[in-house]
Amino acid sequence: MSSLIPKEIPKEISPSGVEHLNLRLQGGGCPSGTVPIRRTTKEDLIRWKSFSNSSGNINVYIPGETRVAGYQLKEPNGRYHGASADLTVHTPRLLTSKQYSGALMWVERGVDIIEFGWHVNPKLYGDNETHIFGYWTADWSLKTGCFNHLCNGFVQVSKSLALGQIFTVPPITEGHMPVVPMFLYQNTYSKNWIIACGEGKMFEAIGYWPPELFNSIKDFAPLVGWRGEVYAPQGELAPEMGTGHFPQNYDAGRQYQSVASFRQI
């Protein structure tokens, strides 16, 4: 496995006023030879069934309204092999337990999509905490794909970072914004789509989706993007995105300390 997943990515210079979070599980994680996977409970199954669509994919919310704000690179002849960014991490306030809010990066080609980021999603986890998540589909979420480990596909390799685990988000104080470097990239040799967090010595790969899961994203993706995303059922006001604040009187230095953002893209 070590030959397929790099152990460290060169450290980049981050803007002042950021606080990189240590996401690793307490105690160093699981024993050698084991990996952490969030336990599925009876209550989880009941919640997931309540918002599954007719195809059986429990990860599609219908009906309702999804709103996004972000940026994407899409070129007819583009051959992208991943995306990365420093994501500010927050715990957006939801108005009901049927809403969600988060931030993510994604790669896409045809009907194949991979997403990686954080979200607050009570229907998925049964709480209002901020969780790290991954998502994949090979048919625009009609019959394939899922969040985290809810179906076969994602291969967990880290013993101290896990999809679905809770981010402990510290309060935002003057001059400090919680940030997590996140990576979604394709290995040149194995063609696995790998996700990782951290920088420098704290960099760690969480795991990967093998290329056999997909139809058209096996070798590259013509589209990569970064976005904030919120969802609300029909008739409900949309929840907060990020901090819930808009930039005011643009000042690059101060914006880092008051609004959600993707940095070092």
UniProtKB/TrEMBL annotation:
Gene3D superfamilies: Outer-capsid protein sigma 3, large lobe (3.90.1320.10). Residues 61-265 form the Neprosin PEP catalytic domain. It holds the Pfam family Neprosin. InterPro entries: Glutamic_endopeptidase, Neprosin. This is Neprosin PEP catalytic domain-containing protein. It comes from Protea cynaroides.
